Amino acid sequence: MSLIKYHEIKNLDLKTIEKIYIENINPGQVYYYKLLNYHKTLIKKAKGVHLYNQNNEKILDFAGGVGSIGLGHNHPRIIEIRGKFQKEQKHDIGPYFYSQYVAVLSKNLATICPGDLNVVILANVGSEAVEQAIKMVEKYQGPEKSKLIYTKNSFHGRTKGALSITDSKALRNSFRLVEGDLIVDFGNAKQIEQLLSQNKEIGGVVLESIQGGAGVIIPKDGYLKDVRKICDDYGVLLIIDEIQCGFGRTGRLFAFEHDDIIPDIVTLSKSLGGSKASVAATIIRSPIYRQAYKSKKEWYVQMPSTFGGMGEAAVTANEAINILYEEGLIENAEKMGNYFLSKLMVLRDSYPELIKDVRGKGLMIGVEFNDISQTFKPPISTFLSSLDKRLKGSITGFVGSVMLNEFRILVGFTEYNRNVMRLHPPLITKAENIDYFIESFEKILIKGLKGIIYSFIRTKL
Ligand SMILES: Cc1ncc(COP(=O)(O)O)c(C=O)c1O
Questions:
Q1: Torsion sign, CA atoms 92, 74, 118, 163
Q2: Are 67 and 245 in contact, with CB atoms under 8 Å apart?
């Protein structure tokens, strides 16, 4: 038996890693990385807003782990606290005693959350936090009132409960999911009221404050306020998923704060982990939690999963919260977000044949390209027809590929709208990073449609 050691990892070349992906991980990932021409990059180091590839070239990370890299990579304070925790030989797993680390993180979360959002259940990933929220609705409302309303193009995770309120045919596939949940248009409060007036089995409404996977969709001001009022009128819980848009990204701790509401349950993850640990939290208004779990015995058995609130993860998240406030990162997200959006809007106005829309709040930004599927003639149309369906009509993949391979900028995409480039710059982003992005992006746009595709083809060679 031959096992690979840590010191040998640096010697693994791309071909060997790709082979492992094909044989032992997920060949689908290989297919998409190759399609986008992301498969030639191996990240060797990460620091601040930058990743470093195998040639030690700097890559500006504006994909930001779909919102997970709020503090940037390897924030020095995060590294320090984790080193300290390890050096002092603190314990990570010990479910039989109180954990001072869980206590501190939960207390601080309660302190920064508005209103009586005071009870915290720690978990490992976003989907797990969503599962906790779904169960909380059923426990609070009772089984007869446990159906949920969710929204079109929502994304809440891949576990079965979360998937049952995720509107994606591809992700739902043919899996047997929780039945009976109801779907409405995102941004339409009236539809929620209509369903509630007809159906007494609905106990909760689940929304993202800003839909990420749908293509960075921002509802009109007042939407969340209307939904809050409707939920109150019908005695229904409002669950807000802030896993992607939360933790300061939009210029507020939570994106729902732009509408000045307090949900009954909030889910948080991604950047909460200080860009270094896997942490998630379901935060519940105290009266709801206390009503849902009246008996102490019931409380106990519903404790978090094995690794929910691991020592090092909890102190990492706690340090991340302290950094967020002490470094003024929420304010920076607002300021840099406004700066970035204003520059992107100039590009939108200069290149209307390519860019359809620019939208965002703080540092959660979507750039939507025009769908150009109908506009090509041979030889480009011949080349395009050889590509995957998702790339055929969209230049987003081409732009992303050229961004990475020519300009060393990493951008993201969205699950449901193939024309949208998703940008989640770290909250520590400076104006100079945005300027570099804008200059590079304009160099791509100026090439025009054909030039972009030729550049893409060149990067494939
Ligand atoms: C809004 C939202 N909810 C839930 C999830 C699921 O989180 P995880 O992938 O950590 O399970 C995600 C992940 O992208 C998300 O963006």
A1: negative
A2: yes
Amino acid 65 reads G
Q: Quote the ligand 1 centre to 377 CA distance (angstroms).
A: 39
Q: Residue 123 C-alpha to ligand 1 middle, in angstroms? A: 13
Residue having the nearest C-alpha atom to atom 3 of ligand 1: 156
243 CA to centre of ligand 1 in angstroms: 6
Name every protein residue with a CB atom under 6 angstroms from any ligand 1 atom: 66, 125-127, 130, 155-157, 208, 212, 241, 243-244, 269
| CA 293 to centroid of ligand 1, rounded, Å | 26
Continuous H helices in 239-328: 286-292, 296-301, 311-326
What is the pLDDT at residue 441?
Answer: 98
Determine the pLDDT at residue 378: 73
Ligand 1 atom closest to the Cα of residue 211 is 1
Smallest Cα–Cα separation from 326: which of 428, 418, 422? 428
Q: Is the link from the previous residue into 379 a cis peptide, with omega within 30 of 0?
A: yes
Task: Indicate which atom in ligand 1 lies nearest the CA of residue 245.
Answer: 1
Residues lower than pLDDT 50 in the chain: none
CB 268 within 8 A of CB 55: no
CA distances from 437 to 11, 199, 245, 344, 444 (A): 32, 49, 21, 10, 11
Query: Which atom of ligand 1 is nearest to 242's Cα?
Result: 1
Measure 268 CA to ligand 1 centroid, in angstroms: 9
What's the pTM value of the predicted model, to 2 decimals? Answer: 0.96
Tokens of 242: 């802030």
Q: For the chain, give every domain's residue range.
A: 78-326
How many C-beta atoms surround the C-beta of residue 387 within 10 A? 14
The pLDDT of residue 4: 96
The domain defined by 78-326 folds into Aspartate Aminotransferase; domain 2 (3.40.640)
Query: In degrees, to the nearest 5, what angle opens at C-alpha 38 toward C-alphas 33 and 41?
Result: 125
